[in-house]
Amino acid sequence: MALPKVGSIGEYIREQRQQAKISLRQLAAAAGVSNPYLSQIERGLRKPSAEILNQIAKGLRISSQALYVQAGLIEDREPPSDVLTAIQADTHLTERQRQVLIDIYESFRKERHAEDEQTSQNARPRRGSQTDDEPLPEEYLAALEPYAATSGNDVTQETKEG
Amino acid sequence: MALPKVGSIGEYIREQRQQAKISLRQLAAAAGVSNPYLSQIERGLRKPSAEILNQIAKGLRISSQALYVQAGLIEDREPPSDVLTAIQADTHLTERQRQVLIDIYESFRKERHAEDEQTSQNARPRRGSQTDDEPLPEEYLAALEPYAATSGNDVTQETKEG
DNA sequence: CCACCCTGCTTGCAATTGCAAACACGATGG
DNA sequence: CCATCGTGTTTGCAATTGCAAGCAGGGTGG
């Protein structure tokens, strides 16, 4: 027994940690666990208890549920779009904002799902289920305006990596 | 030494079990744990791991999440916004996508209400890492521009060390 | 060069989980 | 009356968690 499939949870944690750009020790401290233990967890050598998992989630500032799902401790019954439901239920958003968010979210989902197609085409797969009557790109920018004043910087090429 | 706060989880399980009108041994069998252990759990003498908890939840046919919340292993979701929680819990998103969505959502919120309570981020590597500090402005554009294309996985700044 | 600080990893060891076996106590009934 | 089945509980014990120390090695600089 020991460590057959537990790997994914550890990998997931390590991914999240590295994306957050913090060291193992930092996360360990933030989560209140020892560094060696966290190391072992990340490499799938140990199966952390729920408490530890929860603390790690806090340290990473991610949802505990996401971690539990990764760990297989919760049925993945929040599948297609808990997000969509939440967005639609959010009364703080204007209708337009809502549409934009939904649109973006769906496109993100598509992005991930279509990991086979390496097309260099173009076109906007915008297929939102919204009452579409005008493009919204500038909506995005408008939303980002108060955020990022810097502009004119897009280098994004392919470099697809899995 | 005691497991002061864990009491509720055991009581909760016992309640649920009795409501289901099944014996301790029956639930133990259904959950795949030993009867004595379940007994101890119910009385708060033992702190079950997430796995066991999950199995018990299955045996009781109740939501794992409900149990985890009872056990204090999941934050009692008090969401300033359910959307954020949903986004964070969505395992289908890449971390980058998650960040973008969150930031956009927050900027939307700010547009309407200029109140903020934000991210007290800490734990920033001081040495031997990048000095980058701001979020990811152009990331938004990168993410939105193609609207649905494989977003770059490469961070522009990584090693600033010469 | 060695000292220092950072990174992650390996090594024993105390404390804990989780279990099999056996215990207590009550019904049912031969 | 003693056997048998039912409930939940107590008692050791193997296996595991989780940690304090210590190890290996990359940078920086005195």
TrEMBL record, chains A, B:
Pfam families associated with the record: HTH_3
Annotated keywords: DNA-binding
Domain HTH cro/C1-type span(s) in chain numbering: 13-67
Transmembrane segments: none
Region (Disordered) residue spans: 111-139
Superkingdom of the source species: Bacteria
Single Gene Ontology MF annotation: DNA-binding transcription factor activity
GO cellular component, one term: cytosol
Signal peptide (UniProt feature, chain positions): none
Xref: Gene3D superfamilies: lambda repressor-like DNA-binding domains
Protein name as catalogued: Transcriptional regulator, contains XRE-family HTH domain
